[in-house]
Amino acid sequence: MLRSDNVAYKVKPVCGYEDIMRDYELLIRNTTEIRSVVMLNCGGDIDLTDKFPVINPDSDDPDDHNPYLYFYINDSRRPYNHMNLLPSSKQVIVFGDEGDDPETILEMTQRMAELGDITPEDLDDSESESDSDSDSNASDNDDNQDNDNEEQPNDNDADDDQESLDEAEFGEEKTTKSEHTDGNKSSVEEEEVIEAKSENDSSDPPVRTKR
């Protein structure tokens, strides 16, 4: 098809990414005549804008950037590098599966790109803040628990007070019964003494008197 349309093209078989980088340096980097690079069954699992400054508008050397060059990737291997789908990689066109949801992939890729800006120092600071928050929450929970314990009545103390009150009442009742018993016993003994005296003083039948 390209030949029938008189479109100049060149096919370069490669065995790996070393061959791709070599051909990039020899054929692509230093020319502005090439407008399209089609990568068949390769290039899908690397970030092309990172490997090829010629299609990176944020390249350290602006002269390396060629705004007219586009890379077309048709790679059946998975997973492919989602960085090639970011809006900043507009010079990279990826032909993916029809079942892939472009919006979902783009959202996930943007989140991954945001995570890529996080440094180890940021992670350490985040962990320190998380530990501080955990310690603060634990301290607040302990304080709340102590306050709850102070506000709630002590059931054990109430039971002890009730038992002491019952014992006191039972002791008073027992003392009263004992006094009544002793009084009755004294009356009986007194009657027996009077009866004995009556027998000694007179031959008449004893007369029992009560006081």
Automatic annotation (TrEMBL):
Q: Where is this region: Disordered?
A: 119-211
Q: Give the Acidic residues compositional bias ranges.
A: 119-170
| Organism superkingdom | Eukaryota
State the compartments where it is located. Answer: Nucleus
Task: State the signal peptide span.
Answer: none
Alphabetized Pfam families for the sequence: CDC45
| Molecular function GO labels | chromatin binding; DNA replication origin binding; single-stranded DNA binding
Keywords attached to this Swiss-Prot or TrEMBL record, sorted alphabetically, are: Cell cycle, DNA replication, Nucleus
- Residues annotated as coiled-coil are none
Name any GO cellular component annotation. DNA replication preinitiation complex
- Residue ranges with Basic and acidic residues bias: 171-183
Task: List GO BP terms, alphabetically.
Answer: DNA replication initiation; double-strand break repair via break-induced replication; mitotic DNA replication preinitiation complex assembly
Q: Which family does it belong to?
A: Belongs to the CDC45 family.
Q: What is the designated name of this protein?
A: Uncharacterized protein
Q: Which organism is it from?
A: Aplanochytrium stocchinoi
